[in-house]
Each structure stands twice: as C-alpha cells, then as structure tokens.
Amino acid sequence: AFKAAVLIQQWYRRHVARLEMRRRCTWRIFQSIEYSCEQDQIKLHNFFSYLMDQFTPSSSKERDFISRMFISGESYKEAELEKYCDYESIEVPDSYTGPHLSFPLLPDHATALLEAFQQKQQQLHARYVLNLLHETRKHLKQLPNISHVSTCYSEEITVCGDLHGQLDDLFLIFYKNGLPSPSKSYVFNGDFVDRGKQSLEILVILFTFLLIYPKEVHLNRGNHEDHMVNLRYGFTKEVMQKYKVHGKKILRMFQNVFCWLPLATLIDQKVLIIHGGISDTTDLDMLEKIQRNRFVSVLRMKKRKESSGKPQIQAINGEGDSGTDAAPRLSLQPQSAQAPSTANRREFSRWLRQTVQEQIDTCRRLVDISESEPEELTYSSMVSLKDADEPCWTRQEEWKQVLDILWSDPMPQEGCRENKVRGGGCYFGPDVTEKFLEKYSLQFLIRSHECKQEGYEFCHSRKVLTIFSASNYYEIGSNRGAYVKLGPDLIPHFVQYQANKTAHLLTMTQRQGFLVALFAKISRVEESAFRALREKLFAHTSALISAFKSYDRDNTGKITLSNWATAVESVLRLGLPWRMLRPQLVRSAEDGMLEYKSWLDDLAMEQRSQEHIQSSLLEVIYRNRSNLETIFRIIDRDHSGLISFEEFQQTWKLFSSHMNIELTDDGINDLVRSIDFNKDGNIDFNEFLEAFRLVRQCP
Questions:
Q1: Active-site residues: which are they?
Q2: pTM of the model
Q3: Cα–Cα distances in Å, from 100 out to 86, 106, 107, 132?
Q4: Are 98-301+398-503 and 523-602 the same fold in CATH?
C-alpha cells in the first residue's frame, strides 16, 4: 500500500508538472500573438504616415478624403467642444430606469452605479455620461503630468494594473480591498479599455470615484488610452453599440479626456508608477513640463516639415493643427545669416521682437483669435530674452518621452534597445533601471503593460515590479490578476485572484476532481491558443512555402524538424519553441521528415475566390485583415459600420499607391460591385470579409 501511494504521488506530480508546462507554453503563444498584433498597429501608423507624406492627391475630392481619413476628427477649441458635446440639451425620458447623476457627485452616486452595473441594469444615460466626461476633463486639466501621493494621509495605497474592460475584476478588487474612500487610496495604472466588453462601465466608475475623492483616486494614462488603438481593439465599437445616437459625441469626449490623463504617479518621492517603462533617455523633468494634451494619439506623431529660413510654429496637438486648450509654443529656427549678432543686444532684441510678433500674427490666424479679445497675445507675455536662453525641447523629443513610458518593457540583458516585438517603445535593462533610480533617488518602479501568469512579477533585482489586474486575460484560466498595497514602509503586499465563477477554491472533498478540472481547463485554453496560432500560420502561407523550399532543394515536399522550426520562426518571428509545438501543428513521416506540403493543405481553409481579383492584392488583404478592419473604422466616420462605394474606391487607390500594385478604375469598380452582396449601395465589414473567404461558415 505504501509503495502504491508513492507511485501514485510520483505520477500525480509528473502529470501536474506536464500540465504546468503546457499552461506556460499556451500562455506564451497568446502573448506572442498579442505583441505581434501590437506591432501591426505600429506598422499601420507607419502606413498612415507614408500616405500623408508621399501620396499626392490628384483632385480636391481625394484631398478631402485623406483629410477626413487621417486627421483625427475635428480639433475643437474650448468653446467649440462645449457646444459640440452639449449634454444639457439631451433630455432624460421618464421611462429611463437606470442610475441618475447630479453634480457635485456624492458616494451614493458611486454606489448606485456599482449596483446598476453589477445587476446589468439599463445603461447609464448619454446625458449623464457626457456630463461626467465634462466634469472629469475639467478636473484632469488641473492636475500635473506626474501626480504626487503620500502614504501619510492614508494607511496604505493600492496600485492596480491593466483592467482592459473586464468589469468583474474591478468588482472583485473592490470586494476584497474596499471601495475608494478618504482612508483607502487607489492608483489605477492605465489600460482601462479595449479587449474586454465593459470598458465604458469601468471608465464611468473610475471617473466617478475620481471626482468624489480627487485626493485618494489617481489615474495614469496607458498605451490603450489612445483613440487610434481603440479603433483596433474594441473600445470604439463598444461605445457605438451602446450609444447609437450620441456615441460619436461620447467618443470625442473620451478622446479628449484620455489626452489629459496624468502620465505617472510618484509615491512618497520614492516609488514611481508608470504604465510601460523607461528608456536611457527618460527625463522626469521633461515629463513634468510637456503639454501632455497635445498627444491625442501617441501613434500619430506627425513630423514637422521645416521651410528654410522661416521660424516654425510647433503644432499644439497630435494632429499638427490648431488645437484645443493649450497655447501654441513657438520654436524659432531662423537661418544664421539672417539673425543679428547677439553682441548687439538692442539690434537682437528688436529683431527677436519683430520675429515673434510675426509668429503671433500667424498663430492668431491659425486659432482664429480676434484682435479685440481681452487676453491679447503680446510679445512681453510670450517670450523674453531670458526665455530664449532656456532649453527648448523639440516635439520629437517630447513625443519619444511619452512613447517610451507608455510602451516600453524591461529585459534581463543590459542596455536599452528598440522594442521590435511590440513595435513601439524600447527594452530597458537592469543597468538602465539602476541609473534611473539613482538619478532620481527612487527605490523601485511599478509598471503594468504586460500580462503575467501570477498577476505580478519582479525583475531587475526586485527594482521593477509589473502588476497586471485583468485575470483570465487570454482565456479563462490563462492567468491570475493581482493588485499591490504599499504602506508607509513601501513594502509591497500582493493580493491575487481570478474573477471567474468556476475559479473558486475547492474543498477537501473536491480534490479528487481537481486534476480532471485542471486538465479540462488547460485543454480548453490550449485549444484556443493553437487555433489562433494556426490562423496566424495560414495568413503567411506564401512566405512559409518560400521558406520551406529554401531547405527542400530536391523538391521532395519534406524537410527536417530543425529546418521546419527555423523556417517558421523566420517568417512569423514570434519567438516560440516550435520544436515543442510541432506535434500539435504538423505530421511527421516515418523517416522523421515533415511533410510540409500536406501540412499547408490542411491549413488551407478553402480555395481562393474565383472572382476576378488580383492574387497579389488578395494575399495582402488576408495578411492585413486586422489592419483593414481598423482602416475601415477610420474611413467610417460616423461609425455606422457601412462604407460607401466612393470611400472604398478611394481606399484602394491609396493601397495601390502604397504597395505599388497596379489597379485600374474598372477593376476596382468590378470589385466593389461583387462585394456588395445585398446590393444596398454600401459595404459592411462582413460583406468585405466574406468576399475573400475570411469569415468561417457556420456548420
């Protein structure tokens, strides 16, 4: 009996270890695909930049189209934004049974919202959402770029990581840790939205508590608080589905609120909380002084084009246009031959005054400031000889500061290098962390931005802490969520959880079924991961064939395991253990060779469409499916889900210009008509995807 017990125990431990290995491998697949998608998002931004810089419109119609497509909506001044999002003109009908808000907000309002959202009652009325966003924006505008928090005023401070629209996680945090209050401070470290289905509810709750307890609730901006990212990852679609009438106004207000979110939080001058990370050029002094609201989208930083010999006005928002709330910054860059010598102070002062006044006149024309306005811009109020000697950062430098703290990740190796996995930000090593902490007299960094299996993870000799609060992020059972609590001693205390009805602790009598349940859960998550991986492989069929043939010189249709793994990694660049994954992805012949041709045949969902469509265009479309959906949402200005024929035609003209694919007008017109299956004169996303066999048919 004793030997039998030992054997059973050994078998059990080995089996649990294998399950754990499968779980980690599955999680790595999800993470690699996630980062690959984020890299595609950066590539999409580069695509936009190329079109803006290289494509020359042949008509005013094309010029207007590009303007509507790539300029992030209208750039509203203060009065225009108030008028556009006039919540007072929206009436709340008597039939409305959801929660009501009145300002200033009270704790009872927050309680009512929590109860309504938990019970999935009627959606908060659009009037209240717009009113809440209006008040939140006013509050955020008064905050510095880096919020300063002290543990002296509360027993402890709770720091939460990414939530990504998972409202159940936020409810569980409040249940375990308590609601925000004068004695319970919170720091939410960005990425409140996207991926999950209840991003809007999370923002409503957080903004409500922010207004009720402005000294105890602190919000940092994440890389997903960006309207360009929202187009791809779901928040834009969620808002338009929940608010079909006033959704566009609500989205516009969210976009403006996001750019006013603080960039970092500093606890007791010793612990810095940022969403992504740092780089070897991160400068807290610069971060404290830049105008953060100018970066409406970090992915849309437009390079300024200089004209020789003329001073340039620095754009005051992310679109290179006259913007919303901040005064324009002047960047004087005259040719040295035209500038008087500084030795002659009077001559230099006269020249500088004249030059700046010209810029003020240009600035007035851009932002439409009247000469009769009481707060008139004058030379003395905007620039002086003393100011001219102060350091002036370029727009590119400021943009990189924001990009790095929102998008960067730590790495175990020394140094700092470009983050090519995500496509944005950088990788920073332990030496970069050590120098940064020493420079600013900090103890450690808290960041989020990365899903961790246990909800948190230390690195760089426990000087960098990653906290991630969205449990079951990739699939149910894929990871835990966590938050961290800091007291006056600044020693982190972690709380882990899984917000799932089936993820409760098992009793002693349930231990016999635990292994079966664990196996089923891992199998379900694993199946989902491999399904996503196969779709990724299929999208790169042509490139894989070329890579395999380079190893199959005799054209046998077979290659070795080693060559197969090397070829797949060279194409997908996901950094996965392909040899370990091979049994789940490809069959092997008796001689140990892989039959890649039959494998590719199995991956093929169905043969290509027989429509008269150029094959090169078809492959480009399939590989860029997610990018195309994002582009469609950009073209679809009213977010109705319908694209007109004219907009579709102009889109493919831009694509052909970017990818050097020759497309005739007749060919594009034939393509448009063949896609419009219901002949209603518009193309929706499903029609487009179905035309190229991208939507799986239901059995």
A1: 224
A2: 0.74
A3: 18, 12, 13, 11
A4: no
